[in-house]
């Protein structure tokens, strides 16, 4: 079993090509799980909506203006999070995912904390995110890290919108 101290958070790109493959695998797991939770399970990546398949196939192109944070255990990607480029002093946290085999080790907290540091360094005034209402554990994590529920900016039903002033 890998010790939590062996997990490091790195900014991507800039890592070895194998890390992109690990990021694609994490994004695929995230999107497949989300589809299943929405009651729209698909058999594999090919069944996902186009916008998600593109992320998985070429995250470097999709997130070119954003910062992707990866949690690595050795050379293995075990968690990810995307921080969007600042627009009007706001950034958004997206795609937080930890490999289920590595959960319970503080990786998600470390990723969000690193995202907040990145946002602060970039002069961002507000970090926002949206999370499905059934992801109670994620909502509790965000609340522990200072996020509060705010008025929704997203039309999709069952999304909870949250933000944190920096």
What would the keywords be for this entry?
alpha+beta, single chain, 5 helices, disordered N terminus, 7 strands
Can you describe this structure?
The chain has 166 residues and is of the alpha+beta class. Helix content is 34%, strand content 28%. It is built from five helices and seven strands. It has helices at residues 17-37, 50-57, 59-62, 107-121, 136-144; strands at residues 7-12, 67-73, 76-83, 90-98, 126-132, 148-149, 159-165. It has a seven-stranded mixed beta sheet with strand order 1-2-3-4-5-7-6, sandwiched between helices. α1 runs antiparallel to α2. It starts with 6 loop residues before the first strand and ends with a strand. Residues 1-5 have low confidence and may be disordered.
Quick overview:
The protein has 166 residues and is an alpha+beta fold. The chain is built from 5 helices and 7 strands; from the N terminus they run βαααβββαβαββ.
Weakly predicted, low-confidence segments: 1-5
Q: Indicate the proportion of strand residues.
A: 25-35%
Distance between the termini: 36 Å
Order of helices and strands: EHHHEEEHEHEE
Radius of gyration, taken over Cα atoms and rounded to an integer in Å = 15 Å
Number of helices in the DSSP assignment: 5
Oligomer, anyone? single chain
Give the averaged pLDDT, no decimals: 90
Count every beta strand, where a strand is a DSSP E run of 2 or more residues.
7
Q: Major sheet: size, sense and barrel closure?
A: 7 strands, mixed
Question: Helix/strand-derived class?
Answer: alpha+beta
Q: Level of helix content?
A: 25-40%
Overall body shape = globular
Strands in their spatial order, largest beta sheet: 1-2-3-4-5-7-6
């Amino acid at each position: 079993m890998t010790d939590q101290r062996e997990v490091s958070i790195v900014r991507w790109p800039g890592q070895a090509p194998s890390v992109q493959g690990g990021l694609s695998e994490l994004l695929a797991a995230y999107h497949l799980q989300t589809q299943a939770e929405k009651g729209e399970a698909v058999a594999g990546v090919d069944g996902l909506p186009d916008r998600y398949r593109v992320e998985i196939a070429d995250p470097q192109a999709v997130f070119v203006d954003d910062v992707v944070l990866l949690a690595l255990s050795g050379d293995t990607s075990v968690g990810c999070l995307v921080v969007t480029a600042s627009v009007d002093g706001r950034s958004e946290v997206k795609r937080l995912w930890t490999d289920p085999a590595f959960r319970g080790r503080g990786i998600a907290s470390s990723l969000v904390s690193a995202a907040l540091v990145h946002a602060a360094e970039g002069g961002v005034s507000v970090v926002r995110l949206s999370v499905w209402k059934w992801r109670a554990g994620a909502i509790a994590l965000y609340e522990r890290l200072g996020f509060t529920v705010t008025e929704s900016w997203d039309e999709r039903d069952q999304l909870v919108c949250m933000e944190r002033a920096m």
